[in-house]
Automatic annotation (TrEMBL):
The chain crosses the membrane at residues 40-60, 72-91, 97-121, 128-145, 151-172, 184-206. It comes from Pseudomonas hamedanensis. One of its GO terms (cellular component) is membrane. Residues 13-145 form the EamA domain. Keywords: Membrane, Transmembrane, Transmembrane helix. Its main location: membrane. Pfam families: EamA. It is found in: Membrane. This is DMT family transporter. It is a multi-pass membrane protein.
Length: 209
C-alpha cells in the first residue's frame, strides 16, 4: 500500500476533534472512577451499550440498507472494536486500584505508541526529531511512574497496556477504516461492549455472584 499523502489530511480539524475527544474521555474516566466502586464493569458496559446500540442502529439502519453507509470491511471494523474493548477493559480495571492521576499519565503514553506503530506498520516513518521526542516522552512517563521503586505497583502497568491496545486501534483505523462512516465505527464498538457485558453477566450468574 502506498504512503498516505498529507494533502488528504486536515490537520487543524483533526487536532480540534482529538482535543474535544480527549476532554470527553477525561469526563468519562472520572465518571467510571466514581461508579466503579458501586457497579461492576460489565454492568457499566451494559448500561452504555443498551443506550447506544438501539440509538445508533435506528439511526444507521435505513442508510445501511440503502447503501449510503455500506461497511467497507467487517473484519477491520470488528478488529478495531475488539482492540478498543480490550483497551477499555484494561484501563477501567486499573481505576479502582490506582489514583486517577497516575492512570492518566500512563494512558497518555498512547501518542508515543501510536507514533511507534505508525512507523512500524502504518508506513508513516518518524524523523530523527520524532524519535528523540518519543524517547523523551517515554523517559518522562517513566519518571512519573517510577518503575522499580517502592511506590510502584503492577496495576500501574494496566493503563500502559491499555495505551498499547488503543494505539493499535488507531493505526488500524487510519490504515484500514478510513472509508468507514464514524457512526458505523461507533456502532461496532458499542456492539462489542454489549457482547462483553452479556459474557460478564453470564459469568457472574454462573459463579453465583
Amino acid at each position: 500500500m502506498s504512503k498516505y499523502s498529507a494533502s488528504v489530511d486536515s490537520v487543524p480539524k483533526g487536532i480540534l476533534l482529538i482535543s474535544a475527544a480527549v476532554f470527553l474521555l477525561s469526563l468519562a474516566d472520572a465518571a467510571i472512577k466514581y461508579f466503579s466502586a458501586r457497579l461492576p464493569l460489565w454492568q457499566l458496559f451494559l448500561i452504555v451499550s443498551c443506550l447506544s446500540v438501539p440509538t445508533l442502529g435506528a439511526w444507521l439502519g435505513k442508510d445501511i440498507k440503502s447503501g449510503r453507509h455500506a461497511i467497507a470491511s467487517v473484519f477491520w471494523v470488528t478488529t478495531r472494536s475488539i482492540l478498543l474493548l480490550l483497551m477499555w477493559v484494561t484501563y477501567y480495571s486499573a481505576l479502582p486500584l490506582i489514583p486517577l492521576s497516575v492512570a492518566a499519565v500512563a494512558i497518555y503514553t498512547t501518542p508515543l505508541f501510536i507514533a511507534l506503530f505508525s512507523t512500524l506498520y502504518g508506513d508513516e516513518p518518524l524523523s530523527l526529531r520524532g524519535w528523540v521526542a518519543m524517547g523523551i516522552g517515554f523517559a518522562g512517563v517513566a519518571t512519573v511512574l517510577r518503575p522499580g521503586s517502592d511506590i510502584f505497583v503492577l496495576a500501574t502497568l494496566l493503563p500502559v497496556i491499555a495505551a498499547v491496545f488503543y494505539a493499535l486501534a488507531m493505526v488500524v483505523t487510519r490504515r484500514h477504516c478510513r472509508k468507514e462512516h464514524p457512526l458505523i465505527l461507533a456502532l461496532g464498538l458499542n456492539i462489542a461492549f454489549l457482547v462483553a457485558a452479556v459474557i460478564g453477566g453470564i459469568h457472574r450468574i454462573a459463579n453465583g455472584q
